[in-house]
Design goal:
With 177 residues, the protein is an alpha+beta fold. The chain has five helices and four strands, in the order H-H-H-H-E-E-H-E-E.
Length: 177
């Protein structure tokens, strides 16, 4: 059996605090590095956007969309938000489930998310038509993101060439493409 004839003196308080502080800083630095990664940020912002649409939280959606937004159907930010409010407002129940989300970083402070999503729910005729069209798509959606600061990304473009937007009441032209 091991025995020692001398007892060890406890570490000075300043040294204990220095060790604890170093461990805390290392953990915080690792977490900051992980959460600040552009690929992760684009994933998080894409999921936030879909959740905001699902909850019909239009203030949050507006906050995630850039003032310079222009989509594949020729809509600007204001038009796209109005269209989304009209279409998704017709759902009585709505759930949006992202599928196969992939992120690709672009030049500078840009990135792109591609994904399919499944719309679950029902409502008026426009809601049901939207659900059926989106769920039948064979091409993923592409969302272009632009970094505004280390933790804030804004959607600058959304497109899916295979999707024709249904007409809203009062629209005169034949479907958006």
């Amino acid at each position: 059996m091991f025995s020692s004839s001398h007892s060890s003196a406890p570490l000075p308080a300043w040294l204990r605090w220095a060790v604890v502080g170093s461990v805390v800083l290392a953990i915080a630095g690792g977490a900051f590095w992980h959460y600040a990664q552009p690929e992760r940020q684009i994933r998080v912002h894409t999921q936030r956007l879909l959740q905001a649409v699902e909850r019909r939280d239009w203030a949050q959606v507006e906050n995630l969309v850039a003032a310079t937004y222009r989509d594949g159907w020729g809509l600007d930010k204001e038009q796209a938000l109005a269209y989304s409010r009209e279409v998704f407002g017709q759902f009585l129940r709505l759930r949006i489930r992202p599928q196969e989300l992939q992120v690709q970083l672009g030049p500078g402070e840009q990135g792109q998310a591609t994904l399919w999503f499944i719309i679950e729910g029902s409502g008026g005729p426009l809601a049901n038509l939207t659900r059926d069209q989106v769920n039948a798509l064979e091409q993923p959606f592409r969302l272009d993101w632009q970094r505004r600061d280390p933790y804030r990304w804004e959607l600058t473009r959304l497109e899916n060439p295979a999707l024709e937007l249904p007409l809203l009441p009062g629209q005169g032209q034949a479907g958006h493409k």
